[in-house]
Amino acid sequence: MSVLKSLMISVSIMLAAVLAGCSGAGENRDEGGEAAGAKWVIGMSQCNLGEPWRVQMNADIRRAAGEHPELKVVFKDAQNDNLRQRAHVEEYVSSGVDLLIISPKEAAPLTPPVHEAFRAGIPVIVLDRRVLGEDYTCFIGADNRKIGKAAGVWIAERLGGRGKVVELKGLMTSTPGQDRHTGFREGIADTGIEIIFEADMQWLEPEARGEMESALARFDRIDLVYAHNDPGAHGAWLAAKAAGREREMVFVGIDGLPQEGQAYVRQGILAASFEYPTGGREAIETALKILAGEQTPKEITLRSKVYTRENIDSDGQWLD
Ligand code: FRU
User: Could you tell me the residue ranges of all domains in the chain?
Assistant: First the structure.
C-alpha cells in the first residue's frame, strides 16, 4: 500500500469518526438531543477530539443519553489544553450542572478543579484517564496495566521470547500511558525482549511518526513496535513504510476501534490491537443511578479484548 493510500485511509477514518460523532462537538455547544423537558443537565468535559477514540466516546455518551429524555448533556472540547479543560470544569460548576463527566488530559493539573466540583456537591464521573486522590464519585475505565501486561505477554510469545522492540509511549503524565508502560514491562519481564528505543509520542500519530523516524535511523534491526495507542502504531507504520522497512517488523497498538485498530488489523498494518472501551455508555448508566440517589461503586472496570489476524473475523478474544 502506498503512503498516499494509507494517508487517505487515515483521513477517511478521521472523517468516519467525526461523522459517528454526528454534529462534531464544538465548544459550548449543546448537543444533548432532547433538551426540552430535561430534568438533569450533565456537563461533559472532553480533553480533546483529535483522535477517533475520543470522538467515539462522545458519540457513545450522546447515543446512551439520547435514550433518556430526562437528560441533557452539554459537551466541551478542551482541545488538548489543561488550562482550557480546567476552565471548562469551572464553568460547569458555576452554571450549576447536576453532574459532571470528565475525561481529563493530565492527572495533576485537572485534580484541583475536579476536587472543587466534588466539594461543591456536584457528583463527578472520571472517565478513562484518572485524576489524583479520591475526590470524585466514580471512576470508569478499562485496566490499562492489565492491557499493557497482556500486550507484553502477547509480544514475547509472538517474537518467540526474544527480539528488539521500540516502545512508543502515550503521554506519560496521563495515567493510561504510565499503566500501559508498567504493565508491558511486567509482561516482558524474564524474557529476551530488549527495548532498544522508547519515546513519549503523547498519544499523537504525527509525534509517533517522528519518533519512529529517529528509531529507524538509529537501528538496522527492529523486530516490533509497541505503541500505547493505535494512532501511534499507525504513525510508526507510516514512518517504516516511507523507509521501505515496514515488512521487517510487526506493529502492535491499543484502542481497537472498529473503524481504526480493527481495520488496521484487517489490512495487515497491525498484528494486534488491544481494545480500550470508551466507557461512554457506562458513564450515562452510572450518571442515571447517581442522579436517582442510588449508590454506585467508586470504581467500574471495563473488560477488554485483543484483535489479531487470527481472531478478527470472530470478533476478537476477551482478555481472561
Ligand atoms: C485518545 C487516546 C486514546 C487512548 C486514550 C488514553 O486521546 O489517546 O488513543 O487510548 O486516549 O487516555
Answer: 2-141+279-302, 144-277+307-318
